[in-house]
Amino acid sequence: MIFCLGFVFSCSNDSDDSETITVRVDRSANLLATGASANDILSNANFDELRIEIGFVTGFRPTQTAMNNFVDFLRDRTFKQDIEIIYTELPSPNEETLVLEEIADLEEENRTAYNDGSTLAIYIYFADAPSDGDDLDEGLVTLGAVYQNTSMIIYESTIRNLASRSSLVSVTELETATLNHEFGHLFGLVNLGTDAINDHEDPEADNHCIVDGCLMRAQLQFGATARTQNLTGKASTIRSACNLNGNSVLKILESNVSRGFAAVPLLDAECLLDLESNGGR
């Protein structure tokens, strides 16, 4: 299915007649399954430029340091050196919680960056509301999720609330860990568009790594169940490949810092080997 965005221009001629020209933007290449664009992101075979649109609710823009860290991560792991970040400030949707269907609708309304020529476009939405799948009683809060090949949601309000409870981990570190982990899935990790050279996928957690200490470790995420998704009576027909568990991430980052390590985990050797085999580095 092809989704089109139309822009209308009015042109006048000598007889004062007007002609309407509609320019259609083909969105279909940006509406595929998570991991479908892994090779295009990692290599320069089809696209040698990367444009990342950051749609953020007023007051919830990500920290500049986290964005710098994120761009460094992309340059380290892909062959994309021409990376452009554009920021789009958006009004609040005024929702207490968000399901992925609502997030996808907000993307359709507000996203302006789509694949164009040799430029591959990514959209990341920084929300002012938590995930509808969160269960505070069980300590399950979501930091981020991926739901299409070039689409990601970061629950910025949840990140800030979580960071405020820690004396060891900052907002920037939580943002960086969330961005890098979720983008790892857009890279196709693990077995999500980038095949594993050696078997290192957790048998109990699809598309996550079993190697201890890896950025893509399964313990960083939890799967949204029907029970948690129905806490507020909302329903979503869109499934995320990963829901990043905030409390698990916080514990891991705090543990790293307390042992004198960098807070944000790195990709392990197996994940790096997979990326290299699919056009990355």
TrEMBL record:
The lineage of its organism: Bacteria, Pseudomonadati, Bacteroidota, Flavobacteriia, Flavobacteriales. It comes from Flagellimonas maritima. It comes from the Bacteria. This is Membrane metalloprotease.
